[in-house]
Every structure is written in structure tokens, then in C-alpha cells.
Amino acid sequence: MIAQIIVDIAAKQTDRIFEYHVPDELDEVEIGSRVFVPFGSRKLQGFVVGLSEKSQYQGQLKDLLLVVDEMPPLTNELVDLSKALAKRVFSYRISILKTMLPRVMRANYRKVLTPVSDQAKALPFFQGDPIDLTKVTDNREIAYIRKLLRNDEAKVEYIVENRAKVKTENVYSLPLAQKDYLAFYEELRSNAVKQKQLLTFVIQHYDEFPLKQTLIEKQAEINTATLTSAVNKGWLRKDRAEIYRDPLAGFATATKNHHQVVLNDNQTAALAQITPAIENKKAQTFLLEGITGSGKTEVYLNAISKTLALGKNALMLVPEISLTPQMVEQVKDRFGDQIAVLHSGLSEGELYDEWRRIRRGEVRVVVGARSAVFAPLTNIGLIVIDEEHESSYKQEDNPRYHARDVAIWRSKYNSCPLVLGSATPSLSSRARAQKGVYQLLLLPQRANNKKLPEVHLVDLKQADFAGNQLDLSVQLVKAIEDRLARHEQIILMLNRRGFANFMLCRECGYVMKCPNCDLSLTMHKDTHQMQCHYCGYSTSIPRECPNCKSSRIRFLGTGTQKVLEELNELLPEAKVLRMDVDTTRRKGAYKNILDAFGNHEADILLGTQMIAKGLDFPNVTLVGVVNADTGLWVPDYNASERTFELLTQVAGRAGRAEKTGEVIIQTFNPDHYAIKLAKKQDYEHFYAYEMRVRHAGNYPPYFYTVLISVASKNEQNAAREAFRIKKQLQSHLHSETIILGPTPSAISRLKNQYYYQILVKYKKEDNLNNLLHQIQDSAQKVKKYGLNIYIDNEPERIM
Ligand code: ADP
Ligand code: ZN
Ligand code: ZN
């Protein structure tokens, strides 16, 4: 048999199939298997993407060396998907295949020096073991190694390491009959308390064995020493058994008596459209447009139940930030042990275990963030994407895929419906629904018939401020005081972390910037640092201007840390929880903060956009937006869309239960259409208006877009290469196609790389795909000269 392999080198020359002969002893190999193959002088990992009886190749094929896993990690579907996706996102197929696996399964290569001759093996330098070459830095050692290599005393080898570890636990079984244990018990001395305890437990639970060590220790109230002595006596037998790490251990398990919500008319009507597509295995895409609190989740969960009842499995994607304990709890409550959860909050081990449960067919429902779209789930009968407008569904680095596109592909492959849900659908999805490509389903009312909260704008140009800072208006602080008096809760959003956004010198105008990036440094008061939020560079907070030594320096652009300080000053009795990237780095921090707020251990939840979505706290009656303009003027065509979406989403956190809600939005731009329409929470008018803006500006969804970025440490080189690419494009594309740039990117330097970009806007271009693949290929050639070229198909960000 012949195996077709994609090897683990991301390069143009290796971005193709290599054939290997399958030796008889490796006949367990399947499509999707991970294998080791000889490649030149190296040993590499590869993926089997095909098997055949014969090869066209004339010469002698090399043998496969090893099949890594018992069960191939990738399904046939995923192998096919990798091929289709590589073409679409201009990535090498191996990069896609590796993206599909949990991080721990991506191979690690270590370069080592092994002694060859007996003489070399005896050298004190080796001490019998290979040397890890990545750790050798001493020049004398390097020279010595060169000499060994020249004289064939040693050779360089690559060791492929598998970091994926299966977790095991001790398990005890009973080798003897129940009556034997009774006999032992009778013989025990009366002071052998622990042994009596153990034997009592064994006799009572005889039929339940084998049991895990942790369970026996806990229930019999004995320790490991007692178990060990029982093993030595021949009472127990000890084995190791594989166990899964359970990321949901802290969550309530399925309660059979969870209250069954009766769907309202709108929900019923939406479900009535989706159900036939599930039953008839139709690859149809639905756009469920439902205002915040309209009960979209209930529709998803009911559709999933229908899917499971038909013997099919379901995949549900949610944005990372709405993988809140609240959401997970709801799904877990409904489907219990049948679900697996995948997101970046899990440890590598937990992720690996969840992934294996899916691959082994032990779960029926997968809930996860972006990369869960590659879950090795089979027999899929429904795919759901909640908050489909979220830009986090697009991966920002290679491979630059959009989970929505992948989901559409999988929906076709599995002949099953895809449900996209949002209160503020992406313009492109809403436009497709307009054209009938997707089917539009509307939930225009809140599920509990409550009105949407009333929204007030505060014009920061004319506002009176509470305290002596210019951040919190009297109106907002009054409203907060009002809720505090009534023991209701408040959510405050400011989409900017840190204390202050930048340092400005009043004397000379100097702004403190990152030495590696064209970005100002953010002041973090708690860690006493100026930080770059892009590359992580940090330095101490200056006392005087680093440029002119003046002491007249100011820290401007309020962040969450500063608002927290102001709240503590203005409302000392209010308890405030801050939630942003800085307070949620530790595992579990996220859940702790939300649990505390849910238990009313705090009055105010202050945070960045992290708190804008998905949260459902019935006691929250006021939402305040400290500054609505943080994203409004970023130089990107979709800045208005992002702003409208964020404001509408956060406003939707207020007044979700019995009590009526209010929203106060502070802005310098009360007349901007995105803010005016967010005040009315009027998505449909926003859609209509924004579509006209996009039409006038020749932007998506009227045009398709591709962004080509060129980066280099040397600014001229980046510009020159960008102009060369533009010429190449111009000579091959239609005259109606718009090619913008090259221009320096809005942030022209990041991590010491200068960025130039070209934006291609087109309606139909048969040549473009070919051209972009040529550019991708040429990217590898110019890489030697320190030039990096990135191609982003349908970018979410053009800046
Ligand atoms: P969305 O995701 O659309 O913002 P949710 O799914 O979070 O809305 O639902 C909002 C609230 O309404 C939740 O507390 C949910 O339990 C409740 N809810 C959903 N459907 C119904 C229903 N048919 N009757 C009563 N309450 C409902
Ligand atoms: Zn200065
Ligand atoms: Zn930086």
C-alpha cells in the first residue's frame, strides 16, 4: 500500500503530497493518521491524506517509519477540509492540518548531537547522552561540535517529541471472593482501625470495584499507606487507568428537573423553520436576528435537542468572551455529560482530554470558541454560531480563516443546517439574508415581553462632571447612586484597560511611545509600569519628560484602572469588581468575578468590552458607557459597525428580568449615526444606513476584499516590495477592480517591523486567486531578505 503524506515543513517546495510505501507491520495506518517519515536526512512528522494501491512514481519509495496514534487524529472530513481551506486562505496545507489539532499534539522538534563512534561515545563531553543543540551557546563548544561533525564522530539528529500526555490514576480491584474479606476482618486485631475501615468499605462496596484511589480514600476515610499495605497483603490489586481531566468539574451537572421554558410565538416560529432542515438533512444557512434578550439561546438549545433526538450530533460556536460560566452552565444543565467544551481557558491537558472525548465519539454536543470549528465531531446534524458578527471568529494570524466560512463548508459536507445568531448581524450576513442566500428569522421582542431599556446620551462636550476628573458625568453618577440605594446592580463599560492611555509632556508635546512599535505606552498604576499593549514592552513610569526633563507631564486617556479609582472616591460605599485582560489572566479568574457579581457581592461590574456580551444578570438595571467613542474614529471602514454593535450589545445587559433597565452612554459624538441608532437600538435602520455608506465607499459587502501587507525592519524595502506587488496586480486585474495603496499601515510599525499594505476591492476576478498564490510563493523567496508578505482574504481589520 502507498500512503500520501503532507510533511511537517511549511514551505512552498513541500506544500504537496509525498508518497511513501506502507510496510506490512504498519497496516493500521489510515487517512488522517499522524506518521513519522524519513525526509532527506531528517525524520519528520506527517499526515496521511490518502491511501492507494499503486503509485505513479517510478523510483523506489521510502518506507513509513511509525504510526503515532492508535486512532487517526483527523477524520476524513477534516482531511478534505484542510485541502479546501488551504486554497482559500493562502496558507500551506500543513499549517491548516496542525491548526486542527490541540496544541499539545503539535510536534516539537529538538535538534540534538549524537555521538557516532565508540570513541566519541566515551567522551566526557557527551557523558553517554545526546546534546541538545538549542542549548549550546558557548563559542568554544560550538567549535568543538563542528570538529566532531567534520570528523564524522557525531551527527545531528532531530528528535520529534510528543507533548500530549494521557492522565492516569490508580485503580484498585479485588482479586478475592467477598467471603475472604469477611474472614480477614474477623482475624484483625481490634486496634487495627484503618484496616477495619478499609475492609468494611470493601465488603459493602464489593460489586462496585474496580474503584479509583481518590474515591476510596475519600469514602473510606483512609490514606495511601493503608491501601499500599492492603496491596502487599494481596487484598487489593493496583492498576493504572486512563482518566479525563474534567474542565466542567466546577459546574452543576445536568439536573433532570431544570425548568422547561415554554417557547414564545417568535421562538416557535423560528424553530419551525430550522427543524425541517435538520430532519431533511438540508445544508441551509439561517440568520437568526433577535434583539438582546429575545431568547436566541433557547432556540439553539431546542434545535440541538431535535438534532440529538434524530441520532445526530451538534456543534455550537460562541465567542471566547461569551464562553462565560453562565452560557456553559446552561448547556451543561441541558445536555449533561454529552457535551464537550473547548476554549482557551482550559489547560493544555484539559483541552487534549476534551478533544479525545470528541474524537472517540463519546460526546454528542461540542461547545467552543473559534478553533472548535475544527472539532473532530462526526455525524453532524446541526451547526450553530452564536454572536456571528464577532470579529474574534476570524483568526488574525496564519492561517487566517473565518470560522463562519469553515462552518458553511462543514454544513455542506454534512448536509446539515447552519444557524447564525446575533442581535447585530454582520453586514455581510445580513446582506446575504436580504438576497435570500441565507434565510432570515426574526425575534423582534424580548422573550419575557419586557421592553428594551431606555437609552440616554450624555454629550461630554457640555456635561457637568462629578468630582474633579472629566470622566464621570453628574447624570451617570446620580443614576448609579439611585441604583445603589435600591440594591440594584450596575454594569459600567470602558473599552480601554490600564490607568491612562498615554503620557503627554505639556512643555514639548512629547508622547511616550514603545521603542518597538508605533504605539503610545499605556500607564498601569497597579504594576507601576508603562506598557505596550501590542508587544508587551514595559518600562517604569517617568517622573519627568524623557525628552525635555520638564516635570509638566500628564497621563491622559482614562482606562478602567482610573475609573475604578474615581468610583472609589466618589462612591466609597459601593463595591466594584474590575474585569479586563489584566484582572482575568489567571485561570478561573473570569468565573470568580462573574460568580461574585452574580451573588451580589459587588454593586458595580466595571470592565472592557469583555462585559458587553452574553451576560444575563437579572438584578442589573443600569448600564453605563463611560466613553462610546474609543472605537469610533479608528481608520477602518467598519468602525461604525463595530461601535454600533458594541453599544447595542452592552445596552442589552440592562433590565433583562422584572425590573426595567436604563442605559447611559457618554459620548463626544451624540450626532454620529452609529451612536444615534444605538440609542434607539435600531439594527434595521443601522443596516440600511450603513449599506448606503458602504455602497458609496465601494466597501464590503458590495465588494470582496483582499489585504496584502508587506513587513520589514527596513522601511524602504517594505515599500519597494509593496509597489512591485501592486504593479504585478495592476497588469493582470480588471480595470473595475480597485487597488488601494501601497500605504503605510495605520500603525506603521509593530515589533520593529514597518508595514505597508495594499487593499484589493473587486466584484469578480477569475485571475486573482492565481495571482495571490504567485504572490504567496514569491513571499518565500523574499523572506531571505527580511521581507514578510501576508495575505488576508476578507480581512476584518484594514489598518
Ligand atoms: P439572547 O441570547 O437572545 O440575548 P437569552 O437567550 O439570553 O437572550 O434569553 C434572555 C432571557 O430570557 C433568559 O433569561 C432566558 O432564560 C429567558 N427566556 C428565553 N426564552 C424564554 C421564554 N420563552 N419564556 C420566558 N423566558 C425566556
Ligand atoms: Zn517634554
Ligand atoms: Zn510595542
TrEMBL record:
Residues 277-443 form the Helicase ATP-binding domain. It is an enzyme of class 5 (isomerase). Its cofactor is Zn(2+). Zn(2+) 1 binds at C505, C508, C545, C548. Keywords: ATP-binding, DNA replication, DNA-binding, Helicase, Hydrolase, Isomerase, Metal-binding, Nucleotide-binding, Primosome, Zinc. Belongs to the helicase family. PriA subfamily. Initiates the restart of stalled replication forks, which reloads the replicative helicase on sites other than the origin of replication. Recognizes and binds to abandoned replication forks and remodels them to uncover a helicase loading site. Promotes assembly of the primosome at these replication forks. Component of the replication restart primosome. This is Replication restart protein PriA.
